[in-house]
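Section 3.1: Structural characterization of target chains.
Under the original work plan, the team committed to producing a structural model for every single-chain target entering the pipeline before any wet-lab resources were allocated. The record below documents one such target. The sequence was received from the expression subgroup and is listed exactly as submitted; it comprises 172 residues.
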Amino acid sequence: MKSARCDIHQFRLNITSPGEFLRYTRDLGASKSATIILFNADRMAGRAHVVSALYHAFRAFERGEAISNTVEMEALLYAAGSRQCEVGMEFGLHPGVNRVYLCICPGSDPVLRDLEQKGVYCNEDDWEQFSAEKQCLLKEIFGITDKELAVVGISRLQDLVIERVALLEVYR
């Protein structure tokens, strides 16, 4: 599997059954030679976090070092900074309204056109600003302490999350 340049879109979906929707995206991707990965934006530290998880997941597959059987799950594991699939799945879809980073690897207009019928673009929304509530959630998820933030500042929260993503390789 070669590293794929991925198109990343901000998207909103209303999901009744995550399993059914994932089957749909797998089938759609397979029919158009693309991989579709969906990250729960509410648990992600912005676009850079998405890019890092994708990079590490594709690299793990290229090297034969992947923990999971699919690059989609591998990307979720990296996003979570965890080896546990249950934890990784929290970074994917859930029933109800989902704000997601929709990643199409490699970028594919036909795939995007099909998915446009399932959700709404949010590319104009600013998902890079983190509310106090989201900052607390990211600190909790990734074990980032107040002491660490006192040293580097809250503006570096995203960098600390991405560091945790990269550390997953070390802990394999």
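The mean pLDDT is 92.
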